[in-house]
Every structure is written in C-alpha cells, then in structure tokens.
Amino acid sequence: MKLSIIIPVFNEQKTILEILDRVKKEIIPQVEREIIVVDDGSKDGTREKLKEVKAGDFKIIFREKNGGKGAAVRTGIENATGDYIIIQDADLEYHPKYIRVLMQEVLDKKAEVVYGTRLDRMPHLKGEEAKNLFILHYLGNRFLSLVTSILYGQWITDMETCYKLFPKKAMSGITLHARGFELEPEITAKLLKRGYRIKEIPISVVPRGYDEGKKLNTVRDGLKALWSLVKYRFSD
After folding, report:
1. Which of 87, 84, 121 is nearest to 105 (CA)?
2. Positive or negative CA dihedral for 104, 109, 110, 114?
C-alpha cells in the first residue's frame, strides 16, 4: 500500500525543515510513502529552504502565486500516486507520529476514512483554550462539527481537523472548489455524500498562537465553512 502525504506550505520558513524531518522519520511498516510538498507562493524565504532539501526524499511543487490552502492541497492531490492520502500542515501543531496511528486503522481493515480528532474532550480552559481567541476557535469548531453531523447523518467531533486520511479513489470524479480553509468541510461533505463512514481517532496537538503565524481567522473562515457545509449538502 502506498500513502501520499501532502504538505501545503505558505510562509513557514521557521518550521518547514523541522516538519519535513519529522515526517521523513515516521516510517510505517508495510506502507510505501511519498511526501508531496506544495509551496503556495511563499515570500518569506521558505522557497529558498525547500530548494536546499534533498530532492529524492520529497516531491516539491512550487506554485507561483498564493492561492490558499485549498488550492495547494488540490495541487497535491492531482500529483499524488498513492492509494491513500493524508494532509499534514507545515507548522508544528500536528506531530506526524499520529499518521501511523491513523494508517493502522486502514491496515487492520477497520476503516477506509480516518480523521484525527482534537475535540473529543472538554475545552482545556487552563491550557490552550485559556485565551479568548482559542476558546472561540474551539466552540466554533464544535458548532461546525455539530452542523456536519446534523446535515450528513454521521456524528463528527472534529470536522476541521487537518488529519484527514482517505483513499485516493474517493476523490475520483470529484471536483474540489475550495481555495482556502473551506477545503475541510468540502472534503468532509463529499466523502460523506459518497457513503464513506468516518472513523475518528483521538490525537493531541500543540496549538500555534496568532503571534506565531497562525493563519486561520475564526469568524471569517468559520462562516465560509458553514456556508460550504450547507451548499455541498444540496449540490456538488
């Protein structure tokens, strides 16, 4: 079995080499890997660092203009040759050690689609959700996950998670339209409409602050996600 790990990148010069090193070190028995890095028009020196990376270890694609996370992931999917696909953010919030955990569910034939859920818990009010912006993000994600569950008939706790593992064949004949973070609800909606059941596995993350480069805008991107969930419930 072959797994394509897609890493969309935009202005991540501080973390890019570390995340590539982490992903490269995570060997999964019985699974061949390809690591596809899509630089989405970075302007901060990320591209220069990527050009120094050993080419044989990664498939690196440079987009000339910034199109958003959705556009970068679409490019990665178009160039993926694996049986399965998973998305890995380029910051250090998600540790690649969980890729093996999610992939094991597929190898054991327990699921075809596996999400890593961060939210199968109460908020950490003494931890990462202590700040107003983070608790707002937590509550917004729980709300969007509830909307997903109601509209599509399957209980989901973390629709917005980065870690979405799915078979490439699931995207056959599907056109992804999202350019930004609304990619998360679009992929989820279209997988569920095709009849795939999503198995969630608990994971832990190290949330990045907005002062550290976090790009998600809770209100703006949350409204786009909500509209995407409603729209794709009734259309493609």
Report:
1. 84
2. positive
List, for residues 132-172, the tens digit of each pLDDT value.
566 777 788 889 999 999 999 999 999 999 999 999 999 98
Instruction: Please state, in angstroms and as integers, the Cα–Cα distance from residue 9 to each residue in 16, 39, 108, 211, following that order.
Output: 8, 5, 31, 18
The DSSP bridge pattern shows strands 113-117 and 164-167 to be antiparallel
Percent with pLDDT over 90 in the chain? 74
DSSP reduced 3-state for 118: coil
Q: Which domains does the chain have, with CATH numbers?
A: 2-234 (3.90.550.10)
Q: Name the nearest CA neighbour of 102 among 91, 92, 117, 89.
A: 117
How far apart are the C-alpha atoms of 117 and 221, rounded to whole Å? 19
Q: Which residues pair with 33 in a beta bridge?
A: 3
DSSP-assigned states of every residue in 178-229: --STTHHHHHHHHHHHTTPPEEEEE----PPPGGGT----HHHHHHHHHHHH
CA distances from 146 to 11, 21, 133, 156, 199 (A): 32, 36, 20, 7, 16
Sign of torsion over alpha carbons 103, 109, 113, 118: negative
C-alpha distance across the termini of the chain, in Å = 30
| Predicted model pTM | 0.89
- Answer whether residue 230 shows pLDDT above 70: yes
Phi, psi of 180 (to 5 degrees): -115, -145
Choose among 20, 10, 107: nearest CA to 58.
Answer: 20
Sign of the C-alpha dihedral computed for residues 200, 155, 233 and 159 taken in this order: negative
Q: Which two tokens stand for residue 115?
A: 């999400």
